Protein backbone atom coordinates (compact mmCIF):
# COMPACT_ATOMS: atom_id res chain seq x y z
CA UNK A 1 0.00 0.00 0.00
CA UNK A 2 1.46 3.24 -1.22
CA UNK A 3 1.50 5.31 1.96
CA UNK A 4 3.01 2.55 4.07
CA UNK A 5 6.08 1.55 2.15
CA UNK A 6 8.25 3.96 4.07
CA UNK A 7 7.21 2.90 7.55
CA UNK A 8 10.10 2.46 9.93
CA UNK A 9 10.97 -0.34 12.32
CA UNK A 10 11.60 1.74 15.43
CA UNK A 11 13.47 0.31 18.40
CA UNK A 12 10.90 -1.10 20.76
CA UNK A 13 10.11 -2.95 23.98
CA UNK A 14 7.74 -5.84 23.24
CA UNK A 15 5.70 -6.39 26.40
CA UNK A 16 4.00 -9.78 26.34
CA UNK A 17 1.17 -10.56 28.79
CA UNK A 18 0.55 -14.33 28.90
CA UNK A 19 4.19 -15.21 28.18
CA UNK A 20 3.87 -18.68 29.74
CA UNK A 21 0.76 -19.52 27.68
CA UNK A 22 0.10 -21.75 24.73
CA UNK A 23 -0.30 -19.09 22.05
CA UNK A 24 2.98 -17.42 23.00
CA UNK A 25 4.77 -20.74 22.73
CA UNK A 26 3.24 -21.91 19.46
CA UNK A 27 2.95 -18.66 17.53
CA UNK A 28 4.43 -15.53 19.10
CA UNK A 29 8.02 -16.58 19.91
CA UNK A 30 8.42 -18.41 16.58
CA UNK A 31 7.08 -15.37 14.72
CA UNK A 32 9.44 -12.97 16.52
CA UNK A 33 12.43 -15.26 16.01
CA UNK A 34 11.72 -15.81 12.32
CA UNK A 35 11.38 -12.06 11.82
CA UNK A 36 14.67 -11.65 13.62
CA UNK A 37 16.36 -14.17 11.29
CA UNK A 38 14.85 -12.38 8.30
CA UNK A 39 16.22 -9.05 9.63
CA UNK A 40 12.71 -7.75 10.04
CA UNK A 41 13.00 -6.88 13.71
CA UNK A 42 14.13 -3.41 14.77
CA UNK A 43 17.85 -2.96 15.18
CA UNK A 44 17.37 -2.73 18.94
CA UNK A 45 14.54 -4.41 20.79
CA UNK A 46 13.80 -6.20 24.01
CA UNK A 47 11.08 -8.69 24.88
CA UNK A 48 9.57 -8.58 28.36
CA UNK A 49 7.55 -11.71 29.10
CA UNK A 50 4.95 -11.50 31.86
CA UNK A 51 3.17 -14.28 33.71
CA UNK A 52 2.14 -15.31 37.18
CA UNK A 53 4.88 -17.90 37.56
CA UNK A 54 7.96 -16.90 39.48
CA UNK A 55 10.47 -17.44 36.68
CA UNK A 56 13.99 -16.08 36.27
CA UNK A 57 15.22 -14.66 32.95
CA UNK A 58 17.13 -17.88 32.52
CA UNK A 59 14.04 -20.10 32.94
CA UNK A 60 12.13 -17.89 30.54
CA UNK A 61 14.89 -18.02 27.94
CA UNK A 62 14.97 -21.82 28.19
CA UNK A 63 11.18 -21.84 27.68
CA UNK A 64 11.46 -19.62 24.60
CA UNK A 65 14.27 -21.74 23.18
CA UNK A 66 12.24 -24.92 23.67
CA UNK A 67 9.25 -23.41 21.92
CA UNK A 68 11.47 -22.40 18.98
CA UNK A 69 12.87 -25.91 18.76
CA UNK A 70 9.35 -27.26 18.32
CA UNK A 71 7.52 -24.54 16.45
CA UNK A 72 9.96 -22.37 14.50
CA UNK A 73 9.39 -22.35 10.73
CA UNK A 74 13.06 -21.67 10.08
CA UNK A 75 16.04 -23.64 11.24
CA UNK A 76 17.31 -22.99 14.76
CA UNK A 77 20.79 -24.28 14.04
CA UNK A 78 22.51 -20.92 14.14
CA UNK A 79 23.55 -20.87 17.81
CA UNK A 80 25.02 -17.38 17.54
CA UNK A 81 21.69 -15.96 16.32
CA UNK A 82 19.79 -17.93 18.94
CA UNK A 83 21.96 -16.56 21.73
CA UNK A 84 21.60 -13.05 20.40
CA UNK A 85 17.81 -13.41 20.39
CA UNK A 86 17.53 -15.02 23.82
CA UNK A 87 19.78 -12.34 25.34
CA UNK A 88 17.03 -9.73 24.86
CA UNK A 89 14.30 -11.95 26.38
CA UNK A 90 13.52 -10.96 29.96
CA UNK A 91 10.87 -12.10 32.36
CA UNK A 92 8.94 -10.36 35.10
CA UNK A 93 6.25 -11.98 37.22
CA UNK A 94 2.99 -10.07 37.38
CA UNK A 95 -0.54 -10.87 38.41
CA UNK A 96 -2.48 -8.75 35.96
CA UNK A 97 -4.99 -7.80 38.67
CA UNK A 98 -2.30 -6.52 41.02
CA UNK A 99 -2.14 -2.76 40.50
CA UNK A 100 1.16 -2.33 42.32
CA UNK A 101 2.84 -4.90 40.08
CA UNK A 102 2.59 -2.42 37.20
CA UNK A 103 4.77 0.12 39.05
CA UNK A 104 7.46 -2.53 39.34
CA UNK A 105 7.00 -3.38 35.67
CA UNK A 106 7.44 0.28 34.73
CA UNK A 107 10.77 0.29 36.59
CA UNK A 108 11.91 -2.88 34.84
CA UNK A 109 11.02 -1.49 31.43
CA UNK A 110 12.52 1.94 32.04
CA UNK A 111 15.79 0.41 33.25
CA UNK A 112 16.01 -1.71 30.16
CA UNK A 113 15.16 1.18 27.89
CA UNK A 114 18.03 3.12 29.46
CA UNK A 115 20.46 0.23 29.32
CA UNK A 116 19.73 -0.53 25.66
CA UNK A 117 19.05 3.06 24.56
CA UNK A 118 15.56 2.16 23.41
CA UNK A 119 13.30 5.19 23.06
CA UNK A 120 10.08 4.73 24.99
CA UNK A 121 8.27 2.84 22.22
CA UNK A 122 6.16 0.10 23.79
CA UNK A 123 4.19 -2.60 22.05
CA UNK A 124 1.85 -4.37 24.49
CA UNK A 125 0.62 -7.82 23.39
CA UNK A 126 -2.28 -9.24 25.40
CA UNK A 127 -2.12 -13.01 24.92
CA UNK A 128 -4.43 -13.64 27.86
CA UNK A 129 -8.06 -14.44 28.47
CA UNK A 130 -10.32 -11.60 27.22
CA UNK A 131 -11.68 -11.07 30.74
CA UNK A 132 -8.33 -9.41 31.57
CA UNK A 133 -8.26 -6.91 28.71
CA UNK A 134 -10.06 -4.24 30.68
CA UNK A 135 -8.00 -4.53 33.87
CA UNK A 136 -4.69 -4.69 32.00
CA UNK A 137 -5.33 -1.66 29.80
CA UNK A 138 -6.55 0.49 32.66
CA UNK A 139 -3.52 -0.50 34.76
CA UNK A 140 -1.22 0.31 31.84
CA UNK A 141 -2.77 3.74 31.76
CA UNK A 142 -2.79 4.40 35.50
CA UNK A 143 0.73 3.16 36.18
CA UNK A 144 2.19 5.50 33.57
CA UNK A 145 3.35 2.60 31.40
CA UNK A 146 1.25 4.02 28.64
CA UNK A 147 2.42 7.62 28.96
CA UNK A 148 5.76 7.32 27.29
CA UNK A 149 7.69 9.83 25.21
CA UNK A 150 7.62 7.41 22.28
CA UNK A 151 4.64 5.58 20.79
CA UNK A 152 2.50 2.86 22.34
CA UNK A 153 0.52 0.13 20.58
CA UNK A 154 -1.74 -2.63 21.81
CA UNK A 155 -2.27 -6.01 20.16
CA UNK A 156 -5.27 -8.01 21.32
CA UNK A 157 -6.49 -11.47 20.48
CA UNK A 158 -9.93 -12.74 19.69
CA UNK A 159 -12.63 -13.03 20.94
CA UNK A 160 -13.61 -9.38 20.95
CA UNK A 161 -16.83 -9.62 22.98
CA UNK A 162 -19.49 -12.30 23.15
CA UNK A 163 -22.21 -10.36 21.36
CA UNK A 164 -22.85 -6.83 20.12
CA UNK A 165 -23.44 -5.32 23.55
CA UNK A 166 -20.43 -6.88 25.26
CA UNK A 167 -18.18 -5.91 22.33
CA UNK A 168 -19.38 -2.30 22.61
CA UNK A 169 -18.78 -2.25 26.35
CA UNK A 170 -15.29 -3.73 25.89
CA UNK A 171 -14.42 -1.20 23.22
CA UNK A 172 -15.63 1.66 25.35
CA UNK A 173 -13.31 0.56 28.17
CA UNK A 174 -10.42 -0.01 25.81
CA UNK A 175 -10.77 3.41 24.30
CA UNK A 176 -10.20 5.01 27.70
CA UNK A 177 -6.61 3.78 27.66
CA UNK A 178 -5.75 3.50 23.95
CA UNK A 179 -6.78 5.41 20.86
CA UNK A 180 -8.28 3.41 17.99
CA UNK A 181 -5.17 4.02 15.89
CA UNK A 182 -3.06 2.40 18.62
CA UNK A 183 -5.21 -0.77 18.79
CA UNK A 184 -4.31 -3.80 16.64
CA UNK A 185 -7.08 -6.43 16.85
CA UNK A 186 -5.64 -9.68 15.54
CA UNK A 187 -7.69 -11.78 13.18
CA UNK A 188 -5.09 -14.28 12.09
CA UNK A 189 -7.01 -15.06 8.89
CA UNK A 190 -6.07 -11.54 7.79
CA UNK A 191 -2.46 -12.59 8.19
CA UNK A 192 -2.75 -15.49 5.77
CA UNK A 193 -0.79 -14.71 2.63
CA UNK A 194 -3.63 -15.66 0.27
CA UNK A 195 -6.08 -13.42 2.12
CA UNK A 196 -3.57 -10.58 1.88
CA UNK A 197 -3.30 -11.45 -1.79
CA UNK A 198 -7.00 -10.90 -2.52
CA UNK A 199 -6.54 -7.22 -3.30
CA UNK A 200 -3.71 -8.06 -5.70
CA UNK A 201 -5.79 -10.63 -7.57
CA UNK A 202 -8.10 -7.86 -8.57
CA UNK A 203 -5.77 -4.87 -8.80
CA UNK A 204 -2.83 -6.52 -10.54
CA UNK A 205 -4.82 -8.67 -12.97
CA UNK A 206 -6.88 -6.81 -15.55
CA UNK A 207 -8.52 -10.14 -16.41
CA UNK A 208 -10.12 -10.32 -12.98
CA UNK A 209 -10.47 -6.57 -12.57
CA UNK A 210 -12.81 -6.60 -15.55
CA UNK A 211 -14.83 -9.52 -14.21
CA UNK A 212 -15.09 -8.60 -10.52
CA UNK A 213 -18.80 -7.71 -10.34
CA UNK A 214 -22.33 -9.03 -10.60
CA UNK A 215 -22.16 -8.81 -14.36
CA UNK A 216 -19.81 -11.81 -14.56
CA UNK A 217 -19.84 -13.50 -11.18
CA UNK A 218 -22.76 -15.73 -10.25
CA UNK A 219 -21.89 -16.53 -6.64
CA UNK A 220 -19.03 -16.61 -4.15
CA UNK A 221 -18.38 -19.42 -1.67
CA UNK A 222 -16.22 -19.18 1.43
CA UNK A 223 -15.48 -22.40 3.33
CA UNK A 224 -13.46 -22.85 6.50
CA UNK A 225 -13.74 -26.49 7.52
CA UNK A 226 -11.90 -28.32 10.27
CA UNK A 227 -11.48 -32.02 10.94
CA UNK A 228 -10.85 -31.57 14.65
CA UNK A 229 -13.62 -31.64 17.24
CA UNK A 230 -13.74 -29.45 20.34
CA UNK A 231 -10.27 -30.57 21.49
CA UNK A 232 -9.28 -29.19 24.89
CA UNK A 233 -11.60 -26.20 24.62
CA UNK A 234 -14.95 -27.93 25.26
CA UNK A 235 -16.39 -25.65 27.93
CA UNK A 236 -15.32 -22.51 26.05
CA UNK A 237 -16.59 -23.82 22.71
CA UNK A 238 -19.95 -24.95 24.11
CA UNK A 239 -20.65 -21.30 25.03
CA UNK A 240 -19.31 -19.96 21.76
CA UNK A 241 -20.21 -22.16 18.82
CA UNK A 242 -19.13 -21.77 15.22
CA UNK A 243 -21.08 -18.54 14.82
CA UNK A 244 -18.96 -16.66 17.37
CA UNK A 245 -15.75 -18.64 16.99
CA UNK A 246 -15.54 -18.41 13.19
CA UNK A 247 -18.35 -16.53 11.43
CA UNK A 248 -18.42 -13.19 13.26
CA UNK A 249 -14.70 -12.70 12.78
CA UNK A 250 -12.82 -14.88 10.27
CA UNK A 251 -15.52 -15.60 7.70
CA UNK A 252 -16.88 -12.07 7.61
CA UNK A 253 -13.34 -10.68 7.37
CA UNK A 254 -12.64 -12.92 4.37
CA UNK A 255 -15.94 -11.82 2.87
CA UNK A 256 -14.97 -8.15 3.30
CA UNK A 257 -11.58 -8.77 1.71
CA UNK A 258 -13.17 -10.57 -1.25
CA UNK A 259 -16.01 -8.13 -1.82
CA UNK A 260 -14.28 -4.83 -1.17
CA UNK A 261 -13.61 -2.66 -4.14
CA UNK A 262 -10.23 -1.18 -4.53
CA UNK A 263 -10.04 2.27 -3.09
CA UNK A 264 -8.94 5.03 -5.46
CA UNK A 265 -6.09 5.86 -3.13
CA UNK A 266 -4.44 2.82 -1.64
CA UNK A 267 -4.12 3.82 1.97
CA UNK A 268 -5.01 2.12 5.23
CA UNK A 269 -7.87 4.52 5.75
CA UNK A 270 -9.33 3.81 2.34
CA UNK A 271 -8.98 0.04 2.59
CA UNK A 272 -10.73 0.09 5.92
CA UNK A 273 -13.43 2.39 4.60
CA UNK A 274 -14.03 -0.03 1.74
CA UNK A 275 -14.34 -2.96 4.14
CA UNK A 276 -16.76 -0.99 6.29
CA UNK A 277 -18.71 -0.11 3.17
CA UNK A 278 -19.12 -3.83 2.40
CA UNK A 279 -20.41 -4.48 5.91
CA UNK A 280 -22.78 -1.52 5.72
CA UNK A 281 -24.15 -2.95 2.46
CA UNK A 282 -24.94 -6.39 3.88
CA UNK A 283 -28.65 -7.01 3.84
CA UNK A 284 -29.49 -7.18 7.55
CA UNK A 285 -31.16 -10.37 8.69
CA UNK A 286 -34.34 -10.06 10.68
CA UNK A 287 -34.82 -12.82 13.20
CA UNK A 288 -37.54 -14.35 11.00
CA UNK A 289 -35.16 -14.40 7.98
CA UNK A 290 -32.61 -16.48 9.82
CA UNK A 291 -34.40 -19.76 9.24
CA UNK A 292 -34.34 -19.39 5.44
CA UNK A 293 -30.78 -18.02 5.18
CA UNK A 294 -28.84 -19.83 7.87
CA UNK A 295 -28.23 -23.52 8.54
CA UNK A 296 -27.17 -24.64 11.99
CA UNK A 297 -25.62 -28.05 12.55
CA UNK A 298 -24.06 -30.26 15.19
CA UNK A 299 -21.88 -33.30 14.49
CA UNK A 300 -22.82 -36.86 15.25
CA UNK A 301 -20.35 -39.68 15.59
CA UNK A 302 -18.59 -40.78 12.42
CA UNK A 303 -15.13 -41.29 11.00
CA UNK A 304 -12.27 -38.89 10.33
CA UNK A 305 -9.58 -40.29 8.02
CA UNK A 306 -10.90 -43.79 8.75
CA UNK A 307 -10.76 -43.39 12.54
CA UNK A 308 -14.03 -43.53 14.52
CA UNK A 309 -14.86 -40.38 16.49
CA UNK A 310 -17.64 -39.60 18.96
CA UNK A 311 -20.50 -37.17 18.40
CA UNK A 312 -20.47 -33.67 19.89
CA UNK A 313 -22.65 -34.55 22.87
CA UNK A 314 -20.44 -37.52 23.74
CA UNK A 315 -17.38 -35.24 23.97
CA UNK A 316 -16.10 -34.76 27.55
CA UNK A 317 -17.53 -31.68 29.32
CA UNK A 318 -20.31 -31.14 26.75
CA UNK A 319 -23.84 -30.97 28.15
CA UNK A 320 -26.29 -33.69 27.00
CA UNK A 321 -28.81 -30.99 26.23
CA UNK A 322 -26.39 -28.81 24.26
CA UNK A 323 -27.83 -27.19 21.15
CA UNK A 324 -24.50 -25.56 20.36
CA UNK A 325 -23.68 -25.02 16.69
CA UNK A 326 -20.57 -26.85 15.51
CA UNK A 327 -21.50 -25.98 11.92
CA UNK A 328 -22.95 -22.83 10.39
CA UNK A 329 -23.70 -22.03 6.82
CA UNK A 330 -25.35 -18.85 5.55
CA UNK A 331 -26.43 -16.96 2.47
CA UNK A 332 -25.16 -13.38 2.68
CA UNK A 333 -26.40 -10.69 0.33
CA UNK A 334 -24.54 -7.48 -0.40
CA UNK A 335 -26.82 -4.74 -1.61
CA UNK A 336 -24.62 -2.48 -3.65
CA UNK A 337 -24.21 -1.87 -7.36
CA UNK A 338 -21.30 -4.35 -7.68
CA UNK A 339 -22.74 -7.31 -5.87
CA UNK A 340 -26.49 -7.03 -5.93
CA UNK A 341 -27.86 -10.41 -7.06
CA UNK A 342 -24.65 -12.31 -6.25
CA UNK A 343 -25.11 -14.48 -3.17
CA UNK A 344 -22.08 -15.04 -0.96
CA UNK A 345 -22.32 -18.41 0.78
CA UNK A 346 -20.27 -19.04 3.86
CA UNK A 347 -19.82 -22.27 5.80
CA UNK A 348 -17.67 -23.46 8.64
CA UNK A 349 -17.69 -26.47 10.89
CA UNK A 350 -15.81 -28.92 13.03
CA UNK A 351 -15.38 -32.63 12.36
CA UNK A 352 -15.76 -32.13 8.65
CA UNK A 353 -14.28 -34.23 5.89
CA UNK A 354 -11.29 -32.02 5.16
CA UNK A 355 -9.35 -29.23 6.78
CA UNK A 356 -9.44 -26.39 4.35
CA UNK A 357 -10.02 -22.69 3.96
CA UNK A 358 -11.04 -21.85 0.43
CA UNK A 359 -12.69 -19.00 -1.44
CA UNK A 360 -14.40 -19.90 -4.70
CA UNK A 361 -15.54 -17.35 -7.26
CA UNK A 362 -18.02 -18.89 -9.70
CA UNK A 363 -18.45 -17.07 -13.02
CA UNK A 364 -21.54 -16.77 -15.17
CA UNK A 365 -21.54 -18.11 -18.70
CA UNK A 366 -23.59 -15.80 -20.87
CA UNK A 367 -22.72 -17.85 -24.01
CA UNK A 368 -23.69 -21.11 -22.42
CA UNK A 369 -26.52 -21.61 -24.90
CA UNK A 370 -24.16 -21.40 -27.90
CA UNK A 371 -21.55 -23.80 -26.68
CA UNK A 372 -23.54 -25.97 -24.43
CA UNK A 373 -23.21 -29.69 -24.58
CA UNK A 374 -26.96 -30.20 -24.52
CA UNK A 375 -26.78 -33.47 -22.65
CA UNK A 376 -24.41 -32.42 -19.88
CA UNK A 377 -24.06 -28.63 -19.91
CA UNK A 378 -20.75 -26.81 -19.47
CA UNK A 379 -19.01 -26.39 -16.17
CA UNK A 380 -18.76 -22.87 -14.85
CA UNK A 381 -15.39 -21.10 -14.80
CA UNK A 382 -14.15 -21.14 -11.23
CA UNK A 383 -11.41 -19.22 -9.50
CA UNK A 384 -10.51 -21.22 -6.42
CA UNK A 385 -8.32 -19.50 -3.88
CA UNK A 386 -6.73 -21.94 -1.45
CA UNK A 387 -6.06 -20.05 1.76
CA UNK A 388 -4.91 -22.92 3.97
CA UNK A 389 -3.45 -25.40 4.59
CA UNK A 390 -2.34 -25.07 0.95
CA UNK A 391 -1.65 -21.64 -0.40
CA UNK A 392 -2.39 -21.09 -4.07
CA UNK A 393 -4.94 -20.67 -6.85
CA UNK A 394 -6.60 -22.75 -9.41
CA UNK A 395 -8.55 -21.46 -12.36
CA UNK A 396 -11.01 -23.88 -13.88
CA UNK A 397 -11.86 -23.29 -17.54
CA UNK A 398 -13.46 -25.40 -20.27
CA UNK A 399 -11.51 -27.02 -23.06
CA UNK A 400 -12.17 -29.52 -25.83
CA UNK A 401 -10.63 -32.91 -25.23
CA UNK A 402 -9.51 -34.51 -28.50
CA UNK A 403 -9.08 -37.81 -26.71
CA UNK A 404 -12.73 -37.81 -25.77
CA UNK A 405 -14.51 -36.99 -29.01
CA UNK A 406 -13.72 -33.29 -28.64
CA UNK A 407 -16.10 -33.02 -25.74
CA UNK A 408 -15.91 -29.95 -23.56
CA UNK A 409 -14.26 -30.71 -20.24
CA UNK A 410 -13.17 -28.55 -17.36
CA UNK A 411 -9.39 -28.23 -16.97
CA UNK A 412 -7.56 -26.51 -14.15
CA UNK A 413 -4.62 -24.12 -14.27
CA UNK A 414 -2.89 -24.39 -10.91
CA UNK A 415 -0.46 -22.36 -8.93
CA UNK A 416 0.71 -23.52 -5.52
CA UNK A 417 3.24 -21.62 -3.47
CA UNK A 418 6.15 -23.29 -1.76
CA UNK A 419 4.80 -23.89 1.73
CA UNK A 420 8.14 -24.06 3.49
CA UNK A 421 9.09 -20.52 2.57
CA UNK A 422 5.74 -18.91 3.20
CA UNK A 423 5.84 -16.77 6.34
CA UNK A 424 3.21 -17.60 8.93
CA UNK A 425 0.26 -15.30 9.58
CA UNK A 426 1.67 -14.21 12.94
CA UNK A 427 4.96 -13.22 11.33
CA UNK A 428 3.28 -10.99 8.77
CA UNK A 429 0.97 -9.45 11.37
CA UNK A 430 3.65 -8.81 13.99
CA UNK A 431 5.87 -7.23 11.36
CA UNK A 432 3.00 -4.90 10.42
CA UNK A 433 2.30 -4.00 14.05
CA UNK A 434 5.98 -3.29 14.67
CA UNK A 435 5.98 -0.92 11.70
CA UNK A 436 2.67 0.65 12.64
CA UNK A 437 0.68 -0.67 9.68
CA UNK A 438 -2.85 -1.64 10.79
CA UNK A 439 -4.20 -2.57 7.33
CA UNK A 440 -4.58 -6.27 8.12
CA UNK A 441 -6.02 -5.80 11.59
CA UNK A 442 -9.72 -5.45 12.36
CA UNK A 443 -10.91 -1.90 12.92
CA UNK A 444 -13.55 -1.39 15.60
CA UNK A 445 -16.13 -0.37 13.01
CA UNK A 446 -15.67 -3.67 11.15
CA UNK A 447 -15.96 -5.62 14.38
CA UNK A 448 -19.07 -3.75 15.46
CA UNK A 449 -20.80 -4.14 12.09
CA UNK A 450 -19.96 -7.85 12.09
CA UNK A 451 -21.57 -8.29 15.50
CA UNK A 452 -24.59 -6.30 14.31
CA UNK A 453 -25.06 -8.63 11.34
CA UNK A 454 -24.58 -11.74 13.48
CA UNK A 455 -26.75 -10.61 16.42
CA UNK A 456 -30.16 -11.80 15.03
CA UNK A 457 -28.57 -15.19 14.32
CA UNK A 458 -27.32 -15.42 17.90
CA UNK A 459 -30.80 -14.61 19.13
CA UNK A 460 -32.50 -17.07 16.79
CA UNK A 461 -30.08 -19.80 17.94
CA UNK A 462 -30.67 -18.97 21.58
CA UNK A 463 -34.44 -19.07 21.12
CA UNK A 464 -34.15 -22.29 19.12
CA UNK A 465 -36.03 -20.72 16.24
CA UNK A 466 -34.42 -22.93 13.64
CA UNK A 467 -33.62 -26.62 13.38
CA UNK A 468 -30.36 -28.02 14.66
CA UNK A 469 -29.35 -30.33 11.81
CA UNK A 470 -27.25 -33.35 12.61
CA UNK A 471 -24.32 -34.23 10.37
CA UNK A 472 -22.05 -37.18 10.38
CA UNK A 473 -18.47 -36.52 11.53
CA UNK A 474 -16.34 -36.79 8.40
CA UNK A 475 -18.98 -35.31 6.08
CA UNK A 476 -19.14 -31.80 4.65
CA UNK A 477 -21.98 -30.80 6.97
CA UNK A 478 -25.75 -31.31 6.98
CA UNK A 479 -27.79 -31.84 3.82
CA UNK A 480 -29.64 -28.60 4.58
CA UNK A 481 -26.43 -26.69 3.76
CA UNK A 482 -26.46 -28.21 0.26
CA UNK A 483 -30.12 -27.30 -0.15
CA UNK A 484 -29.35 -23.69 0.72
CA UNK A 485 -27.40 -23.45 -2.56
CA UNK A 486 -29.57 -25.81 -4.59
CA UNK A 487 -32.51 -23.48 -3.97
CA UNK A 488 -30.57 -20.82 -5.92
CA UNK A 489 -29.39 -23.26 -8.61
CA UNK A 490 -25.84 -23.67 -7.26
CA UNK A 491 -23.78 -26.25 -5.44
CA UNK A 492 -20.81 -26.15 -3.10
CA UNK A 493 -17.48 -26.28 -4.89
P1 LIG B 1 -3.32 -19.98 27.92
O1 LIG B 1 -4.36 -20.31 28.93
O2 LIG B 1 -2.39 -21.04 27.47
O3 LIG B 1 -2.42 -18.79 28.46
C1 LIG B 1 -2.95 -17.75 29.22
C2 LIG B 1 -1.84 -16.93 29.84
O4 LIG B 1 -2.45 -15.99 30.70
C3 LIG B 1 -0.83 -17.71 30.66
O5 LIG B 1 0.45 -17.21 30.39
C4 LIG B 1 -1.22 -17.38 32.09
O6 LIG B 1 -0.15 -17.41 32.99
C5 LIG B 1 -1.71 -15.97 31.92
N1 LIG B 1 -2.58 -15.56 33.04
C6 LIG B 1 -3.76 -16.08 33.43
N2 LIG B 1 -4.21 -15.43 34.51
C7 LIG B 1 -3.30 -14.46 34.80
C8 LIG B 1 -3.18 -13.48 35.81
N3 LIG B 1 -4.13 -13.30 36.75
N4 LIG B 1 -2.09 -12.68 35.79
C9 LIG B 1 -1.13 -12.82 34.86
N5 LIG B 1 -1.18 -13.73 33.88
C10 LIG B 1 -2.25 -14.56 33.86
O7 LIG B 1 -4.09 -19.32 26.69
P2 LIG B 1 -3.54 -19.18 25.20
O8 LIG B 1 -3.91 -20.37 24.41
O9 LIG B 1 -2.12 -18.79 25.23
O10 LIG B 1 -4.42 -18.00 24.62
C11 LIG B 1 -4.37 -16.69 25.12
C12 LIG B 1 -5.55 -15.94 24.59
O11 LIG B 1 -5.41 -15.80 23.19
C13 LIG B 1 -6.85 -16.72 24.80
O12 LIG B 1 -7.50 -16.38 25.97
C14 LIG B 1 -7.66 -16.32 23.61
O13 LIG B 1 -8.36 -15.17 23.96
C15 LIG B 1 -6.64 -15.97 22.57
N6 LIG B 1 -6.54 -16.94 21.48
C16 LIG B 1 -5.79 -18.06 21.57
C17 LIG B 1 -5.72 -18.91 20.49
C18 LIG B 1 -4.88 -20.15 20.51
O14 LIG B 1 -4.75 -20.76 19.45
N7 LIG B 1 -4.30 -20.55 21.59
C19 LIG B 1 -6.40 -18.63 19.34
C20 LIG B 1 -7.13 -17.47 19.29
C21 LIG B 1 -7.19 -16.65 20.37
Give a quick precis of the structure.
It is built from 16 helices and 16 strands. The protein is an alpha/beta fold. Nicotinamide-adenine-dinucleotide binds next to helix 1.
What topology does this entry show?
Blueprint: E1 12-17, H1 22-37, E2 45-51, H2 57-71, H3 79-87, E3 89-93, H4 99-116, E4 122-126, H5 133-143, E5 152-156, H6 164-177, E6 183-185, H7 193-196, H8 198-203, H9 206-211, E7 217-225, H10 234-259, H11 268-281, H12 287-293, E8 294-304, E9 307-309, E10 327-332, E11 344-349, E12 356-363, H13 368-371, E13 382-388, E14 392-401, E15 407-416, H14 425-435, H15 444-462, E16 468-473, H16 479-486
Parallel strand pairs: 1-2, 1-4, 2-3, 4-5, 5-6, 7-11, 8-16
Antiparallel strand pairs: 7-12, 8-9, 8-10, 10-11, 12-13, 13-14, 14-15
What would you say this structure looks like, in words?
The two termini are 32 Å apart. 38% of the residues lie in helices and 22% in strands. With 493 residues, it is of the alpha/beta class. It has helices spanning 22-37, 57-71, 79-87, 99-116, 133-143, 164-177, 193-196, 198-203, 206-211, 234-259, 268-281, 287-293, 368-371, 425-435, 444-462, 479-486, and strands at residues 12-17, 45-51, 89-93, 122-126, 152-156, 183-185, 217-225, 294-304, 307-309, 327-332, 344-349, 356-363, 382-388, 392-401, 407-416, 468-473. A hairpin with a 5-residue loop joins strand 14 (392-401) and strand 15 (407-416). Residues 18-24, 51-52, 94-97, 127-130, 157-158 line the site of nicotinamide-adenine-dinucleotide. Nicotinamide-adenine-dinucleotide binds at residues 18-24, 51-52, 94-97, 127-130, 157-158.
Amino acid sequence: LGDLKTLELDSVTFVLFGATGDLAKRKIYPALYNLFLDEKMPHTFSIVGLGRRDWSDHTFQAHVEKSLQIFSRRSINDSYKMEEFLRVCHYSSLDVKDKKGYDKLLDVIQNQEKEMSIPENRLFYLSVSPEFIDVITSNIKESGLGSSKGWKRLIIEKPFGHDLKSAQVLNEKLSQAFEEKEIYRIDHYLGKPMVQNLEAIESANPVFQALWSNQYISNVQITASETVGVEQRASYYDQTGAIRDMVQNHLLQMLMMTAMHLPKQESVKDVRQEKVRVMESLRPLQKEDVVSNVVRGQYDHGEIYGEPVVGYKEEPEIRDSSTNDTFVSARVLIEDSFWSGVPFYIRTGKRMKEKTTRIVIEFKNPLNELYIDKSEGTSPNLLMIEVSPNSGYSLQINSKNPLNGNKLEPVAINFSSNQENVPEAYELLLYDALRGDPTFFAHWKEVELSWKWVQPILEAFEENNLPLHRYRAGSMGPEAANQLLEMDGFKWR
